[in-house]
Every structure is written in C-alpha cells, then in structure tokens.
Amino acid sequence: MSKEITPRQQDYAQWYNDLIIKSGLADYSAVRGCMVIKPYGFALWERMRDELDRMFKDTGHQNAYFPLFIPKSFLSREAAHVEGFAKECAVVTHYRLKNDPGGAGVIVDPEAKLEEELIVRPTSETIIWNAYKDWIKSYRDLPLLINQWANVVRWEMRTRLFLRTSEFLWQEGHTAHATAPEAEAEARQMLAVYADFAERYMALPVVRGVKSPAERFAGAVDTYCIEALMQDGKALQAGTSHFLGQNFAKAFDVQFLTRENKLEHVWATSWGVSTRLVGALVMAHSDDEGLVLPPLLAPLQVVIVPIWKGAEQKALIDAKADEISAELKKAGIRVKYDDSDNVRPGWKFAEYEMKGVPVRIALGARDLEQNVAEVARRDTREKMSLSLDNLAARIKDLLDDIQQQIYRAASTYREEHITPADDFDTFRKILDEKGGFVSAHWDGTAETETRIKELTKATIRCIPLDNPPEEGKCILSGKPSRERVLFARAY
Amino acid sequence: MSKEITPRQQDYAQWYNDLIIKSGLADYSAVRGCMVIKPYGFALWERMRDELDRMFKDTGHQNAYFPLFIPKSFLSREAAHVEGFAKECAVVTHYRLKNDPGGAGVIVDPEAKLEEELIVRPTSETIIWNAYKDWIKSYRDLPLLINQWANVVRWEMRTRLFLRTSEFLWQEGHTAHATAPEAEAEARQMLAVYADFAERYMALPVVRGVKSPAERFAGAVDTYCIEALMQDGKALQAGTSHFLGQNFAKAFDVQFLTRENKLEHVWATSWGVSTRLVGALVMAHSDDEGLVLPPLLAPLQVVIVPIWKGAEQKALIDAKADEISAELKKAGIRVKYDDSDNVRPGWKFAEYEMKGVPVRIALGARDLEQNVAEVARRDTREKMSLSLDNLAARIKDLLDDIQQQIYRAASTYREEHITPADDFDTFRKILDEKGGFVSAHWDGTAETETRIKELTKATIRCIPLDNPPEEGKCILSGKPSRERVLFARAY
Ligand SMILES: [Zn+2]
Ligand SMILES: [Zn+2]
Q1: Best of B21, B27, B28, B29 to disrupt the A interface by mutation (most A CBs within 10 Å)?
Q2: What are the pLDDT digits (tens) for A444-490?
Q3: Do B169 and A130 touch (CB under 8 A)?
Q4: CA-CA to B106 of 20 to 30 Å: which in A370, B69, B297, B420?
Q5: A67 close to B (CB below 8 A)
Q6: What residues of chain B lie within 8 A of the CB of A39, using their CB?
Q7: What's the predicted TM-score (pTM) here?
Q8: Which of A68, A81, A172 should one mutate to test binding to chain B, selecting the residue with the greatest count of B CBs within 10 A?
Q9: Chain A partners within 8 Å of B30 (Cβ)
Q10: Which residues of B touch A42 (CB under 8 A)?
Q11: Between residues 244 and 263 of chain A, which touch chain B (CB distance below 8 Å)?
C-alpha cells in the first residue's frame, strides 16, 4: 500500500479522487463519464441501499421496475419537465449491429433504425405515469406507494467519481395520492426519512429545506431537499423529495373516481437519492490517511492484524484471533482476520486506515501473555490497550462511540460554518475566506438569485424548514425580506 | 377479481399471459419489448435475488457494478463472441436532445453524435475483462470472484413477459483464475448453486448438463446449464455457467505473474440467471385458478380472511386475527389480514388463489366459538379445520409440506416426461404426442443436430452431467454414439 494521497490542504479535488481510487471504491471505465463501482465501493452502497430499502418498506412502499427506455415523445408531455430538464441524454436510434462487409468487426445496421428514438432514462416520471394511467381507476387504488432501484443516465462532460457521472445508480420513489395534503405529507415524510438516514447512518448532519423556485425539479410544485456540508466548505445536495401537484397526472391523463364518484386528477410525489451519497460520505469524514467510515455503514468494522515471529508464535496468535473473530461475529460485528504473509504489519495498518476500517486490533505474542490487545480507532487514530476479557462488548461500545464521534465532528464543523451575513461585502468575504453556508436575506426574486450566482458562484441551497420569520433587507437589492435563506457554493 | 384466465388445455401460451397480467406480476409497457415488473412480481424477484445473492456470497463472491454501455469496438475483440452473439442490440448514437425549432417537443441534436457508438450491454464480458486488465497483475490478485446485478438489453421482436423481453434483469458472475482446473471447478460450482436454488427454493427439478458445441455461449469453451420442464412439455433453460478458457483474457490481454514469476493469461468463467426464472416458476407450478407459489419464495405466505355479519362479530374476529397474525409473524411467517369491506369473502378467496398465496385462513364467528379456523392450501386446494391452539407451528409445518408437495408434483411430471427413443419415428412421435425430454443417441455432429432441429423443432438441451456411457446408434444418421443426450422443444 503506497499511501500517496494528495493532502486535502494542497488540492481537495485531487485528494478526493486519489482517495476514491486508492481505497478501491471505484475507478474510471473505458466509457467516457461512466465509472466502475469496485467491490469495496459496492459493498458500501449495498449497506446504504439495504438500510434505505428497509426504511422505505417500513413507511409502506413497495418496489417495482419500469423500462430503461423512454419514448422520446414522452419527455415533451409535461411542459415544465421538458423545458427545465437537462437534455444531455443517451439516445438509442438503432436496434441492430451487423458484420462489417469490409471485415472490420461490427457496424450499425442502417436498416435497423427506430421509428421513434428511445431515451435512456434520466429519471422515470414520464414512463411511470404512463403506466399509472392503467393502474389507477378509483380512490381504492390510492395511495400508490412505489419505489424503483435503477440505473439512470445523464450525459456529463466533466465528471467526478460518484459525485457526477453519466451513469449512476439511484432509487426513485413515485407515489400517487387522492389529495394535495396527502401528497405534500408524503413528500415531507420522505425528506424526513432521508434526513434520518443521513444523520443516523452516514453520520452526516443535514439541513432540511425547500428549494427556491429557480432550483426546483422540472415539473415540481415544491422541491424539498437535504443539504450537507463538505470539508472544503462547499455544500452538497444529498437528496430531494418533490411535491409534483397534478402536473404529471394531467400530462398523462391519470384520473380517479373519488368516493363521491367524481373524476379527479391524481396528486403526485417523487423522491430520490443516488450513489452520490457515497461521494458525500467520503468527502464529509475522510482525512489525509484515507477513508473514515461510520461503523454502521462500513463493510468491514474491525480488522485483526497479527504480529509474530516464527511459526510457534503464529499458531498461538491464530488460535486467539479465531476466538476473538468468532466472539465478535456472534455479537453482530463485521470482522476480518488478515494474516497474509506477503506484507508487513505496518503496511496492513496503512492499508486498513486507507480503507477506513473503524477499528484495528493488533495482536502480538507479548499481548497474549498479558491478555490484552492493542486497539486503534480510525477516526481519532487513538490507540488503547484493551483486556481480551469481554472484548466484544468493549468493541461494540467503541463502534457506537466512533459512530457518534464522527457525527459530532461533522456537526461541529457544520455549526461553525453557518454564518449570517447582512451586507453583500460580508457575504462575499465569507464565501471566499471561510466557506460554508451563509444565512442571508433575499428579496425572493429569480433575478436577484441569478445575479448573486453570477457575482459569487453561490446558489440558494434551501430555505430551511424550521426557519424563524425575520424582517430584513435583501443583501443584494436591499428590498424587504421576511426570512433568511442559506446560500453556498455547491457540488 | 374476475377470474378470466384462459384454461391451460385451451391455449397454454394465452393462459400464461393472462396469469402474469391478472395476478399482477407484470405488464406490457409503452416501449416495445420492455415490460413493467409490478410490485407483486418484483417482490417475488426480490426474494429470489436475495437468496441467490446470499448463496453467491457464501461461496466467496462480491458484488460490483460496471457500465451500462459498451464501446462498439469491444464486441469485436473476442472473435467467437462477436460472431456468435446475437447482434440485436440497442445502439446509442447521440448524447443530446434539443428543442425542436418548429415547436414539436424535442429532437435529437445532430451535432451531438458520438464518435464511437455505444451498445447497451447485452452481457458484460467485454467491458468487465477490459477492467480486469488493470485489476489483475499477480497470482495474489486471483481468484477474482465478482458478481453484478444489472439490467441488460437484447432486442426482441417477439416477446413474452418474463421469458423473452428486450430488457431484463439478471445477475452475471465474472470470475478470473490462475489455472484451467480452478476455473472449471468454479463453473461447475456455480451450476450446482443454481441447481440447488431451483430445486430447494423454486421447487423446480432441473437436469444438470453441458451444452453441445452448437448451443454453447459465444466465446465459451464449455457451457453448463440447468434445464427445467414446463407443464406443456417444453423445456426451459433456467441458468447457464460458462467455462471461458483464456478467450477473454487473450482478447483483452489480461496476464498475471505466476508464483514462478512467469506471465500467463488468466482463466475465466461467467454465469447468469435472470428474471426469466419468474416465468419458469409460474409455468412449472401454476394452474387454471392462478399462480401456485412455493412458500419459500411467496411474497405473502398466509392470508387471513374474516367472515362476519355486523360490527360485533367483526370486532371479535379482528381481535383474534390480530392475535394470530402476531403469532405467525413471530414464527417468521409472512402474513396479511385482509379485512377490506368492499368485496365479499368469495371474491377474496379467488383473488388470493390467483395470486398463489400458499395458505388461506378463513375466520368466522362460529369458528371462533369452536376455537378453530378453516385453513385452505393453495397447491392441492384441500381444506381443513385446524385448532387455533398452537396454530403457528401447524402452519409452519403446512408451509413445509406445501413446498415439498409442489416439488414432488413437478418431479413426478418431469420423471414421466423423460422418454427414451431409439429410432427417429418414435423420437418424433414422442415430441408430437407426449412432449418432454427425449433421451436419444446422437452422432456428435453439428450437421445432425441442425437437421434434427429442422425436422422436429427439437434441440439438444444438454448432455446430462451424470450420463452413463452407453453404446448406440444416432437416431438420425445411424452412426455410432457413446451416450444419450436430452432433446426437447424449448422456450
Ligand atoms: Zn386529464
Ligand atoms: Zn495477451
């Protein structure tokens, strides 16, 4: 393991890239803009996915699967959707290859041209609402609470592993309701699920808020979001939940018979999080030595490394390590004993620090004599000598403590980086020198929002849900404002 | 629930289609050849996927994720692969849409043409082996045991829900090994995993075999397969596992340093099963009343239906049903209490028969007085009166019994439908009148195989792995043969 990660202070973007690749989370692929999620990265995503899936099911949702392809004409059905949605899509125009008569492999068969082009889904509202038209007839069919785990494609020229790739994995919930308040409540409930997941599992404090009209999802009436802060002071949108009103129901003519036997259009939500969360997790907690993973999501929670001279010592340590492994496994802890003999213990220490394994147990011959082990925690890099008696319980406590400590550290950083600004010079200075969220008055117009973005590269991340009302003046226009909003430069 | 399924005797293909749609497993979509997997169908697939995933992990495999797109030129790298592999692929030629200047929605932006077309993966050997080139340097990197759960696309003109669709979901294992015997053993191990899954979970007896050269996967040295028999006497390939030799390693130049410090090409396997298994499950066990699902995979194992008159009875039954539900859930049984009041009990009975719920418990006021419930099993449609005392244990036994009974019924049918034939007239007669597998001598040539297919539409399903050697004469050519092979008409 050569620990050649660029330090964060030197180049944060390069640090992130080095880290993702050297820790084995992901790599670039032969296809521009698409990444390979390697086994370690996928194991992390699997843990996130499984917890989220459980939370979705606990709130009454079912999974389903809709086609990868969307007929091009569907995208034009909802006016705001097609206007606002990025048009950088992968377009399928042909359905057959044939052997090149010249012998140069295969070529596209020009005779196999599709009558209507198919778009590789960038999001699935249109194809799903087209199906819902057949599924929803009466109020008894509502609410319809469906989620899909899928890959989606949005063509990207400038990509960044996990954070922005042409193909990514995500889940998209698409629900249908009889009334507006029910759909609103669903959109807010799913935002709460995302926030809970981010904070409890990812150890990532988030601001719950609603987007300004300009930052809304194309086709939404309201877009709720959770916003997190990265160590370089930039914000990252970690999840969104949209109240879609009747827009898609009207575009696809989905009506239902009410209890009173009247035909009405259905109310909708959609909500999603993606493999971007892996990037957020890495950026929020890791350091110059490698990943720092919260124990609840770490694919491996504990690694045991033997330190030995000669076969006799090795045999003794092996026996003890197996005993400890069994004890930890029984306690539900994900543990690995790494007794590979082709690298030295110091190399292994560095390797597992790079991979962010929360706890390392080093076992040497002298430790065994004293019935102790040297235990190191990844987050603070503290070392302690722990008795081997009742070790599983101690390790379990330690893992809990690490989970909380990682959250606390991120929370402290976040709290220190929400800064109020009451004039534009201060606003700009905070963005340039300190970073983080800036809490400021805004006059509520898209013009001002755009102008601030042009001048500072900062966008309105959200209007926090728990915002206290406060009379004030817009930092740019000086016009009256009734609450502060959060600005930041963002990923 | 209108039980309008076409009977099997009348039209087996229509029965299957009716059943899939009316039981809510899947439906057609707006995209030709692509289906929507509805929540009930997806819940079934999820249970299959989770069991398989556990089995893959238990045999040392890890999941990863590779790009959806494959550069067109990759397909030509392995000669047999491109020659033999179906060229009915979805081809991405452009990466952007734009607003139609004429106002008719969106059009493909002709300026956004890809330099090299991308193929939506029909299978991932090429893109994965291109990545393995960077991952594998030394014998210490081997074996590499990776699986991917993904969607794939193979353009189909004539589709059938679950059995043949343009897009389907599957898993594809791709492993790399230092030696040929290790790779061979892996290919056989994964075949054993598939067979075990089919028989223990799907209650589907399968023949384990190896394909004739003509039926091999394009690029494989040997293709192992499991073959199942459907109720109409046609065979269905339920899974394949390929020993790929060094073909892909050579095509993508993947070499490793051996222990002896020599450079050698890596040995490979790939193996996969897909949502086709859902179709096989349905076809193998279901009847004219609806689905028959093996309890181990049924999304819902027990449904409780109340039969009441008036609120007073209802309250008593509700209380008892909640008690029973809690008891069953505690025993790990997936149970639902359906006390909806908009349809009659008889309608519910038919509905849950259609959905193949293995056990139905009807609870009436008189039952409660006598401390019994009327329990009906879906597979044999037998009814029995069971005491409410210790009901969970009785239901658990019943579910076990149903699982075994479904397997036994399918096995009996399968055993009755493996028929030897020693001359071509008999061979043809069995295929036409009885169906099933025909065990016959074949001279080992592709010419004879093709001719038999032309004459009878039957293909060699496999050469069974446990085949006893037997001297004989080819049923078509009369040339000498040393073992029988299994022919059948197939899905
Ligand atoms: Zn309408
Ligand atoms: Zn080579």
Answers
A1: B29
A2: 999 999 999 999 999 999 999 999 999 999 999 999 999 999 999 99
A3: no
A4: B69
A5: yes
A6: 62-64, 146
A7: 0.96
A8: A68
A9: 67, 71, 74, 127, 130-131
A10: 62-65
A11: none
Three-state secondary structure string covering chain A: CCCCCCCCCCCHHHHHHHHHHHCCCEEECCCCCCEEECHHHHHHHHHHHHHHHHHHHHCCCEECECCCEEEHHHHHCCHHHHHHCCCCCCEEEECCEEECCCCCCEEECCCCEEEEEEEECCCCHHHHHHHHHHHCCEHHHCCEEEEEEEEEECCCCCCECCCECCEEEEEEEEEEECCHHHHHHHHHHHHHHHHHHHHHCCCCCCEEEECCHHHCCCCCCEEEEEEEECCCCCEEEEEEEEEEECHHHHHCCCEEECCCCCEEECEEEEEEEECHHHHHHHHHHCECCECCCCCCCCCCCEEEEEECCHHHHHHHHHHHHHHHHHHHHHCCCCEEECCCCCCCHHHHHHHHHHCCCCEEEEEEHHHHHCCEEEEEECCCCCEEEEECCCHHHHHHHHHHHHHHHHHHHHHHHHHHCEEECCCHHHHHHHHHHCCCEEEEECCCCHHHHHHHHHHHCCEEEEEECCCCCCCEECCCCCCEECCEEEEECEC
Is residue A86 predicted with pLDDT exceeding 70?
no
CA separation, residue A298 to residues A45, A205, B43 (Å):
10, 18, 27
| A2, pLDDT greater than 60 | no
**pLDDT value of residue B157:** 85
pLDDT in tens, A334-357: 999 999 999 999 999 999 999 999
Q: Is A372 on the interface with B (CB under 8 A)?
A: no
Interface contact A118, partner B, CB < 8 A:
yes
- In angstroms, what is the span from residue B245 Cα to ligand 2's centroid? 13
Residues of B in contact with A29 (CB under 8 A): 66-67, 127, 130-131
* Cβ pair A167:B120 closer than 8 A: no
Q: How far is the CA of A224 from the centre of ligand 1 (A)?
A: 26
Q: How far is the CA of A264 from the centre of ligand 1 (A)?
A: 8
- State whether residue B276 is helix, strand or coil: helix
pLDDT in tens, B292-349: 999 999 999 999 999 999 999 999 999 999 999 999 999 999 999 999 999 999 999 9
Residue B379's CB is within 10 A of a number of other CB atoms, namely: 21
Asked if B71's CB is within 8 angstroms of A106's CB, the reply is no
Q: ∠ at Cα B381 (B378, B386), nearest 5°? A: 85
Greater confidence (A87 vs B274) lies with B274
Q: Write down the pLDDT at residue A82.
A: 72
pLDDT score of B1 = 44
| Residue-range domains of chain B with CATH | 24-71+127-285 (3.30.930.10), 302-401 (3.40.50.800), 418-488 (3.30.110.30)
Least CB-CB distance to B93: which of A74, A91, A153?
A: A91
Distance of residue A168 Cα from the nearest chain B Cα, in angstroms? 9
- In 3-state terms chain B splits into helix, strand, coil percentages (rounded to 5) of 35, 30, 35
Mark yes or no for CB contact B63/A46 under 8 Å. Answer: yes
Residue A423: CB atoms within 10 Å: 13
Tens digits of per-residue pLDDT, A279-316? 999 999 999 999 999 999 999 999 999 999 999 999 99
Distance from the alpha carbon of residue A175 to the mean position of ligand 1, in angstroms = 18
Contact pairs from chain A to chain B, CB under 8 Å: 199
In this prediction, residue B3 carries a pLDDT of 61
Over residues B112-119, mean pLDDT: 96
Q: What's the rounded Cα separation, in Å, for the pair A14 and A6?
A: 6
The token pair that represents B100 in the structure block: 């139609």
